[in-house]
């Protein structure tokens, strides 16, 4: 496990959240092979809009 990415107190209406941005940066840096998300709606309500 690389890190624990938790955005407590932030709405999931978009990905403009500090920890999600940190997760995206780590993905781009290829720090890991797999991202496990327990509930996709918590990642973002508009996850179909994400293009990462």
Percent of residues in helices comes to: 25-40%
Structural class by secondary-structure content: mainly alpha
Main sheet: strands, sense, barrel: none
Domains counted in the coordinates: how many?
A: 1
Q: Into which percentage range does the β-strand content fall? A: under 5%
Determine the N-to-C terminus distance.
Answer: 21 Å
Q: What do the pLDDT scores average to?
A: 75
CATH domain fold name: Rossmann fold
Would you write up a description of this structure?
- With 52 residues, the chain is mostly helical.
- It has a single domain, classed as Resolvase, N-terminal catalytic domain (Rossmann fold).
- Helices cover 29% and strands 0% of the residues.
- The chain has two helices and no strands.
- It is globular and about 25 Å long.
- The model has no long low-confidence stretch (mean pLDDT 75).
Strand-helix topology:
Layout: H1 18-28, H2 40-43
Can you tag this structure with a few keywords?
52 residues, mainly alpha, 29% helix
Give a brief outline of the structure.
This protein has 52 residues and is mainly alpha-helical. The chain is built from two helices and no strands.
